[in-house]
Amino acid sequence: MADMARRELLTDDERGRLFGIPEGESELIRHYTLSPAEFDLAADRRGSRNRLGFAVQLCLLRYPGFGLRAGEAVPEALLTYLAHQLGLSAAAFRDYSRRTQTRLDHAGELFGYLGLRPFIRADVPLALDLAAAAAWSTDKGEPIAHGIVEGLRSAKIILPAPDTIERAGLAGRARARRKAAEALVAPLAPEQLGRLDALLVNDAALNATRFAWLRDIPESPSTTNINDLLDRLSFVRGIGISADDAIATVHEHRFRQFVREGAVAPAFLLSDYSANRRRATLIASLIDLEMRLADAAIDMFDKLVGSLFSRARRGQERRYQA
Question: CA-CA distance, 231 to 236, in Å (whole number)?
Answer without folding.
Answer: 9
